[in-house]
């Protein structure tokens, strides 16, 4: 059961501010009351309930990532989503092979949902992205390459950071990186 939910013994469902959650299915059975503004999956709680919060059950936002972005850049994010340049899925490998912390905000990008994860179109987490496949698969292959080449940590870090910049340029998201926003002159 998620925080703020009430359990209904008769229906065996959890009620969370305007919608019902079925623990056997592991998802909501009622659509998100804010529709697509909460994401493309109308029945999700949050993309990652460990990092994302949905205090009223109306929308999702990543308070931790947003705080890290603001602390690093010096201003709040503009778009709805913070994208990890280096995929969280491989955090242990990045740390072990290149001493890269994937949660360092200098590797973040502030993206619109359309640019980040659309299932149709060219979101970075789709196989039809400009890099030709899912962002995470690209980095899985790059980490395999680093291992096979037996790169030292400093060389691996330089190599992976350069590849991140190259991929961001190819995906046309470089201007949304935390460093680009941080260093952009104010108008």
UniProtKB/TrEMBL annotation:
InterPro entries: His-Me_finger_sf, Rhs_assc_core, T6SS_VgrG/RHS. SUPFAM superfamilies: His-Me finger endonucleases. Coiled coil: none annotated. This is Type IV secretion protein Rhs.
């Amino acid at each position: 059961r998620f925080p703020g939910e009430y359990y209904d013994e008769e229906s065996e469902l959890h009620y969370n501010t305007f919608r019902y959650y079925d623990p056997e299915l592991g998802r909501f059975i009622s659509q998100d009351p804010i529709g697509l503004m909460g994401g493309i999956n109308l029945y999700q709680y949050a993309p990652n309930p460990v990092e994302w919060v949905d205090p009223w059950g109306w929308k999702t936002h990543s308070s931790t990532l947003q705080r890290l972005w603001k602390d690093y850049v010096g201003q709040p994010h503009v778009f709805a989503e913070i994208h990890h340049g280096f995929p969280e899925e491989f955090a242990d490998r990045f740390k072990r092979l290149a001493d890269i912390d994937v949660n360092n905000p200098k590797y973040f990008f502030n993206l619109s949902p359309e640019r980040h994860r659309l299932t149709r179109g060219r979101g970075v987490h789709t196989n039809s992205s400009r890099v030709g496949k899912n962002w995470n698969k690209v980095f899985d292959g790059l980490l395999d390459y680093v291992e096979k080449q037996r790169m030292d940590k400093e060389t691996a870090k330089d190599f992976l950071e350069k590849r991140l910049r190259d991929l961001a340029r190819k995906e046309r998201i470089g201007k949304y990186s935390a460093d680009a926003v941080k260093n952009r002159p104010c108008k």
